[in-house]
Design a protein that fits this description.
With 321 residues, this protein is of the alpha+beta class. The protein is built from five helices and 17 strands. The protein has two domains: 142 residues, no CATH class; 142 residues, no CATH class. Strand 15 and strand 16 form a beta hairpin.
Length: 321
Amino acid sequence: MKIVRWKPILVCFLLCMTEVIGCGGNKEEASEYYIFYMNKEKTKTVAVGYEPKETGAKAMIKEFLKILFQDTDDPDYRKPVPKDVKVEAWKFKDGQLYLYFNSAYGEMDNIEEVLCRSAIVRTLIQVEDVECISFYIGDTPLVDDDGTPVGLMTADSFIENPGEQINTIQTANITLYFSNQAGDGLVQEIQEIHYNSNISLEKLVMEQLLKGPVGKKGRSAIPDGTKLVGVSVLDGTCFVNLSEGFLNQNYEITEPVVIYSIVNSLAELPNINKVHISVNGDSNLAYREKMELGTMYERNLDYMDGKAQKKDKKNKKEKKK
């Protein structure tokens, strides 16, 4: 089976700003709901006003999926999903919608896949109680060109900029926190990165943390073999879902350094105040039996390199007294 992989930097998707039109094809005032189609040139999505017949989350999901896969009579736009692509199954639980596609999904070219994914997510995310959406090909999570799972998606996962390109290469400076060489403190590293605007900044931060530092002062705090299953932000809280590799034991790095490497890096983003970490969706775990993953962690700079050591020495002196 071919898994869709798209290159975030080498491939520049020529996607235009979404056009909004009414059910009859004429531009009109905004509707409460939209179905996102693809224009006939396959270069942009087209939002068409729609009035759903069903009510309730599951019934509306079923209705919207049916329409997304139907051919249209309008010559100006087409259904966003190729003929051979099918949703073999779907489930909706605790605000998350899981879509399981057949292997034909993996046969789309990069541009068509991103447009298709954008149209599906932005249509279904309108359903009340649907907070995020995950794509699978069979039982395998959709991955990017590096083999990293695309993870949870919302409407904000697809950034649309004015002009001819909505998925363009952008530059940003992000602040990351890695372990020091001793493993008992954090060091800060500011990285200038070039990225595709289709990637959320929280996903970008996690990907760079997993890659490790550029400089020589730090080392990756996250255990080897850890993969990002998903990351999303809701109401100021960032939910990070990591693979079981995160539970690998590396006693060279202290527990708080591992946790706050993630928390402090994500908390540098203006839309994130707290971080919730889980492993394969399970947060009822304690990292090395000391730090509960179910905790909503906030930024904490007490473990910065030098500061942590001074604090440790002070505690030892107080114990001696």
